[in-house]
From TrEMBL:
Residues 399-444 are annotated as: Disordered. Residues 1-397 form the Major facilitator superfamily (MFS) profile domain. The chain crosses the membrane at residues 16-38, 83-102, 108-129, 169-187, 218-242, 254-276, 283-300, 306-326, 338-361, 373-393. Signal peptide: none annotated. It is a multi-pass membrane protein. Its main location: membrane. The lineage of its organism: Bacteria, Bacillati, Actinomycetota, Actinomycetes, Kitasatosporales. The keyword Cell cycle does not apply. Residues 403-413 have a biased composition (Basic and acidic residues). The keyword Magnesium does not apply. Keywords: Cell membrane, Membrane, Transmembrane, Transmembrane helix. It is found in: Cell membrane. This is MFS transporter.
Length: 444
């Protein structure tokens, strides 16, 4: 089934996808507007950074507890409730501005409340995708979500900047409204009840997801690859901006180059189903890693924006398929009663490592220079790829099922077989959960 087909035939996924698209776009609007608003009311650059940092720290600290709640409580009500909380938090900004009482403390409070609600929302959204989409359609569903997310990331910041020029409060009003629309759409989703696991068989520990992951060889190899590329990607963003600025490029040129990453992501998400069906996970990861290594090496030889942009499109083009393979494997292979905790555990591992990228990149650029930093990043991508993807070349547990390759359909509720190469501990899985409504940062 093609990705457009699932939107026509699956009403619940259509509502989920519309909710995700609208609210992610809202997040991107306020992503740029938040620091601009802090500065516009007299805040410093450090205060602007503190708002974003507090939101990130809150989400990180609450990841594991959020997964635990998603495994035990009504997922749809968690999603709707957190959307309402975030609507109220964002709507307080226009309200306070209209009353003349908007200040740094309130913006910081909004960031913390919204970060906490987002942390609670994400694992519930992960499980909801698995509940409303049959296994045979997961690849196309995740591809559709990736496309929507890439589109929002491409146009959102520009639209947010434009709205901010019209009225500094307008991006936050639109962002709040998107939460309301998301909540209404989610209320109309009919989530199928899952089979209850007996209390004597249920692992109720907060760290159950992490414990399960430690027994999954294929999953850990994929996590090493994805986490390594995430670190390199985060470091590359900082290195790109600094190197272009040092070469004399203006803000418009730098913005155009960074927009090329959004173009690459959008094209890659559209092509992902085709690439996934024709390449096993190990070979796909090897291809992606080598493209990243080669592209970063090219960046070390030029600082011309017109040369860097097309290469950046090609490099980022291959990233969405990897995220889809990993997200699909988690949804299909993780035990249903642990899915919330597994998804948050993988996200914690990935986000925790990637957060070090910008700091490392800045230190390397200061000490080695931009050109050598690009070579270090290229070498890192190559080493991580060889260490993680080569062992997966003969591993089949991460690949799409026969359903995705045109085989006979399987009942979505049929028990899933354990993948080859795993022990008797249970099914094996992979990484990041699909992007649910409001997975963004800054304003989300």
């Amino acid at each position: 089934m093609k990705s457009a087909g699932i939107l026509r035939t699956n009403a619940d996924f259509r509502r989920y996808w519309l909710s995700s698209t609208l609210s992610t776009l809202g997040s991107q609007l306020s992503l740029l507007a938040f620091p601009l608003l802090v500065l516009s009311i007299g805040g410093s650059a450090a205060q602007a950074g503190t708002v974003a940092t507090c939101s990130m720290v809150t989400r990180t600290l609450l990841r594991l507890p959020a997964g635990h709640l998603a495994d035990r409580l009504d997922r749809r009500m968690i999603m709707v409730g957190t959307d309402v909380v975030r609507l109220v938090a964002l709507a307080s900004i226009p309200l306070a501005s209209g009353l003349g009482g908007l200040g740094q403390a309130q913006l910081l409070g909004v960031a913390v409340v919204e970060g906490a609600a987002t942390a609670m929302f994400s694992p519930a959204a992960t499980i909801a995708v698995r509940d409303v989409v049959p296994e045979k359609d997961l690849t196309d569903a995740l591809s559709r979500s990736q496309t929507a997310m890439a589109s929002s990331s491409l146009i959102g910041p520009f639209l947010g900047g434009w709205l901010f020029t019209l009225d500094p409060i307008l991006p936050f009003a639109v962002d709040a409204a998107s939460y309301g629309v998301s909540a209404v759409l989610l209320l109309r989703i009919g989530i199928r009840p899952t089979e209850r696991v007996a209390d004597s068989e249920r692992d109720n520990r907060l760290t159950a997801g992490l414990r399960w992951l430690t027994h999954q060889r294929a999953l850990l190899a994929a996590l090493i690859f994805a986490a390594g590329i995430n670190i390199v990607s985060a470091a590359a963003q900082v290195t790109m901006v600094v190197s272009l600025r040092q070469s004399g490029a203006g803000g418009t040129a730098i913005g155009a180059v960074m927009a090329c990453a959004g173009i690459g992501g959008l094209l890659g998400a559209a092509a992902a189903p085709w690439l996934i069906k024709r390449n096993p996970a190990g070979r796909l990861f090897l291809l992606i890693g080598m493209v990243w290594a080669l592209g970063l090496a090219i960046f070390s030889r030029t600082t011309l924006p017109w040369a860097i942009g097309p290469v950046l499109i090609v490099v980022v083009f291959f990233s969405p398929p990897a995220g889809i393979v990993v997200g699909r494997a988690v949804l299909v292979l993780a035990p249903r009663d642990l899915l919330g905790r597994v998804s948050t555990a993988t996200g914690l591992m990935m986000a925790g490592l990637a957060s070090a990228g910008p700091i490392v990149a800045g230190s390397f650029v200061d000490s080695l220079g931009a050109s050598r930093t690009w070579l270090v990043l290229a070498g890192t991508a190559a080493v991580v790829t060889l260490l993680s993807s080569v062992p997966l070349l003969r591993e089949t547990s991460l690949d799409a099922t026969e359903d995705d390759r045109g085989g006979a359909p399987k009942d979505a509720d049929e028990p899933l077989p354990a993948p080859a190469g795993e022990d008797d501990a249970g099914a094996a899985g992979l990484v990041p959960a699909p992007p649910g409504p409001r997975p963004g940062s800054g304003g989300s």
